[in-house]
Amino acid sequence: MKFSRLVEFPEDVDDEVTGPLPEMMFAEGEEPVGVRVLTYQSSRAINTILKALDNDEIQHLRKTSFRKLVEIAEKPGFSGRFARYLLSRQLKVEKKHEAWFRFAGKPIIFSLREFAIVTGLPCGEFPKKSKSKKKKNINEKPYWPEIFGRVEEMRVSRAVKMLRKKTVTDKDIRMKLACLAIVSSVLLSTNLRMKMLKEYAEMLVDMEEFFAFLWGSQAFDILMTSIKKRDEISLSQNTIALKGFALALQLVIVEAVPALTKVVQEACSSSESYSDDDDADRHATKTKKKTLSPGHAQEVDRKAEAMMTSIIPPDPARPVNESLVKWSDDVVDAKVENLVRIISRNQVIRKEMIRGGVSKVDVDRMRENVKEGGKNNNKERSRRTYL
Q1: What distance in Å separates the CA atoms of residue 253 and residue 107, rounded to the nearest whole number?
Q2: I need a surface site. Which of 120, 145, 245, 348 has the fewest CB within 10 A?
Q3: Model confidence, pTM
Q4: How far apart are CA 348 and CA 359, in angstroms?
């Protein structure tokens, strides 16, 4: 989706809303009250890795495509309770690579464009690998042993410990360890036991190529896929989990509603993360990470008086090529197009314009239908087996 379309509409158009808008996933007042969203990414992962590095190594990172990740480490950490609150306020859209959230009475978009703005990571559509490239990769000598020797598996926490204790002193290798740790435990985290991702170690041969890789698109795809898998039934569970760099979603909402950062609180990372690699933090710092206050966020949402924007503006210091932050396989959603048209005209989006949504009773009914469907499928399989 090209966001240049925001200025493509003629100025003399009728101000009346034409066409339907996306509906809410849950009706207002019927949103599920869950506990939190858990992530496979430690909420202090970035800080832990950075604290294991020397100052000159951190300054080197600031000169790469990972520079904004260093800045993110200084911002409030991921709040699983705020993310849980936000996910239940989604709008139902057909687009595969785009999500909209209702907050403070207004819609807020989360797409690859916004992900690129808040993370500063390279984004774009992945090119198809040629056969010659695949053949070349097969014949190349594996680079993993050059860093880890005969060790076939490396935990992120162990790698960070090696950095912190100066077990590794070579500056080049230290930087490669740190970058692979960031990729494995921050951007592409998908499992409980944080392991260094072996498949990306080969990129470390050429660090310029490594930093130019489309890490933003890769991380965004993992996160968006995880969000899209959640329907009304799964979102009604007390605790749900998201894969990937979930903090990016919070960063976008904060950019859209700056008032959210006026109140922060201390939180233990173990309450927001699935990761068991937090033990690396014990040697790095005993200071609790600051995070958003869910109570303050709910108050901002309820009052709907704070300044906000539905589509966050680009970062002047790091402009995003908006022709690249799109997906060729995405679908056209007329309701989303209508919503963007309204936003582009600077029209006021009134609360009653976004309607619909299921109730708690509807969710219970949906859950029962799924159970009944499962029972019927089991009976059918049993009948076929018998026959």
Answers
A1: 10
A2: 348
A3: 0.87
A4: 27
Q: CA 269, CA 249: separation in Å to the nearest integer? A: 17
CB of 211 within 8 A of CB of 65?
yes
Could you tell me the CA-to-CA distances from 353 to 26, 82, 101, 301, 321 in Å, in that order? 15, 25, 14, 17, 32
Amino acid at 240: I
Beta carbons within 8 Å of 121's beta carbon, 6+ residues apart: 65, 66, 68, 69, 115, 187, 214, 215, 216, 219
d(CA 307, CA 219): 29
Residues 240/77, Cβ–Cβ less than 8 Å: no
Q: Which residues of 214-250 are buried (b: 16+ CB within 10 A; e: fewer)?
A: bbbbbbbbbbbebbeebebeebbeeebbbbbbbbbbb
CA dist., res. 111 & res. 113, Å (int) = 5
Q: Retrieve residue 357's tokens.
A: 């949504």
Say what the alpha-carbon torsion angle 83, 87, 88, 93 is, to the nearest 10 degrees: 170
217 neighbors 321 (Cβ within 8 angstroms): no
203, 210 Cβ separation under 8 angstroms: yes
Instruction: Provide block-wise average pLDDT over 10 residues at a time, the chain (387 residues).
Output: 41 58 96 85 81 97 96 90 94 97 94 97 78 50 89 93 95 97 92 84 95 96 96 92 93 96 72 50 55 93 93 91 91 96 91 92 94 70 52
Q: Where are the domains of the chain?
A: 3-356
